[in-house]
Amino acid sequence: RTIVAVERTFAIDAEIDLMFGPESPSAARPEWQPERLRSHDYLGGLVALRGSLARRLVGIAGDRYPYHRWDLVLRAGEFARAVAISDHPLATRLTPTVTPMNPETTRRGRQILHDHFTRVGIRALAEATQIPGYFRTRRVLSAHPKVSILIASPSANHATPEDHLDALCEVVGSIGENSTYQPLEVIIVTDDSIPSTALHRLRELCEGSAEVLPVCRPAAAISRHLEIAASLATGDVLIILDDTCVVDSDPEWLETLVALAIDPSIGAACSAPDDAPFTTGNGSVSIQTETTTVARSCIAIRRKVLAEVGGLCDEATGLATPAALAALGLTCVHTPFVRLRHHRADRPLATT
After folding, report:
1. Which one-letter DSSP state was computed for residue 155?
2. Is 299 helix (H, G, I), strand (E, B) or coil?
3. Residue 345 has pLDDT above 50, yes or no
């Protein structure tokens, strides 16, 4: 029955070169996620390839055990013109796959990823996680476009004007303290006036690392304030940062976000929400992967993409949604290398 289903699928659409399905009858239907595949082999127990594609992959040299199948699937994904996903498993594993973890298998896994990155023209680093078979990939910048961080900071989010200014200083200070990226500007739109002493303090906090431009406008929806900030921004990449979030990442968090955001296949890159780690039989692990849940706490998007989706189109969040990006053939990726903490512990990091 599986063979018949695969043959029928390949016969109906001559562009389909690869087909897979869920790993078990109870598992959810998977999606084709190239970024996730760069972290682990998440495809089901059986992957079907069109004969012409399989013949292109014959003769792969080198010892790739226990990641030989993963290497094959990565290579197949590079050449496949289209991918089909079955609603039902193509096969069911009788026993779980056990991936040995030692320095040699870790080296092989990293080498497979390094070779894949070289073939597809991606600059990235790979590191092993504590879970066998799972790797964490981190993009490396090839260019440094100007970045504008946009912060909409309504006074209603804060009990008093003093609390408001303290919160802004904490957010802006965390950017200055934890960022090495250049060129960078920070644009703050608020409905509350900022005293000259506070303005001086905000600029001091980012002195040498970013320009700070506070703008006062009448109270309005967050999306409207972000539109104002975007209209004033001069960066090619815009990063929307929640005014209640403090950056708690290593100094290259912006480089990671920007490297993802400028990838032509990616529409937006965002911080991973608290519930993002994958749960495996050996524990939980945070990886870089496509997502349908945008962490609106921190999201990076190219100015050109923002214009193509019609601006900041969601009145509630002020963000382009994954559905709008998907309509353009673009994905949204969240990364574990951007970590935020809330300076109001009673309010969880938001997603949409």
Report:
1. G
2. strand
3. no
Distance from C-alpha of 2 to C-alpha of 91, rounded to nearest angstrom: 8
Name the residue among 301, 348, 337, 303 with its Cα closest to residue 321. 301
Cβ neighbourhood burial of 281 (10 Å; 0-12, 13-18, 19+) = exposed
- For 235-257, the pLDDT digits (tens) are 999 999 988 889 998 999 999 99
**CA gap 336, 147 in Å, rounded:** 20
Lowest-confidence segment of 73-77, 90-94, 296-300 by average pLDDT:
90-94
Q: At 94, is the pLDDT very low, low, confident or very high (cuts 50, 70, 90)?
A: low
Residue 147, classed as helix, strand or coil, is strand
Residues 49-69: what's their mean pLDDT? 86
CA angle 276, 280, 284 (to 5 degrees): 45
Q: Give CA–CA dist 87/91, Å, rounded.
A: 12
